[in-house]
Amino acid sequence: MSSDRLPTLFIPHGGGPCFFMEEGIGPKGTWDRMAAYLRGIAASIGQRPKAILVISGHWEEAQPTVHVGRNPPLLFDYYGFPEHTYRLSYPALGSPELAKRVRDLLAAAGIASGEEAERGLDHGVFVPFLLVYPEAEIPVVQLSLRQDLDPKAHLAIGRALAPLRDERVLIVGSGMSFHNLRAFGSTDPRVIEAAQRFDDWLASAVEEPDEAERSRALESWSAAPDALFCHPRAEHLAPLFVAAGAARGDRGQRTYSDRIIGKAVSGFQFG
What we know:
By secondary structure, the chain is an alpha/beta fold. It has eight helices and eight strands.
């Protein structure tokens, strides 16, 4: 990787506003290591991005759609949490210029896209970024997933966006490497073992040094051990496909590993 080229990331964004609650999902301290990992990302990257492009597991459209607003609002798309968590603030500017560049790159790759200016940043963006870049001084643009969650299509979206890395844009996929909400609170050993098997497979796929082999593995993720148990739908995994596609030839590495209520959860960096 060139000294000026930014890496791409796949980060876990936790459960709702979990980092900003005294008591919440899981025993006390459940989210402490994840919060520490998120707080350490800026220092680990080293250079300051010019802008951030985030693909969250909480926004799906028929075609990839980019938010083009200059002052994106926040979308509090979580329910049943303490009142103060609906007063969180993340006043980062948007970047219509970056949004246009995203659409131009997608068009050059033959990928149709859309734009919108009203929706705002969902909690897959503002919750983790309150820890990653709490000063909110770097412009943030959000790009949606495709509703079909097709891994090959999302890898292609990432490949089309790869030039942004040389333009000091940090590309971040925000999701969770385990996302079976019905099983999330379970301490059944079978659930814990299934999560570990899939997490081990996922790390091996991401760390595959050959780009073509890595892409083939991720395209067929649903055949991995316990994949469809860990992800009954792929919306929290698909942001990883975009980050992996944008990595191009850069190998991935697991930069965060933890157990949340017993379930293996990981974060990854490419480049």
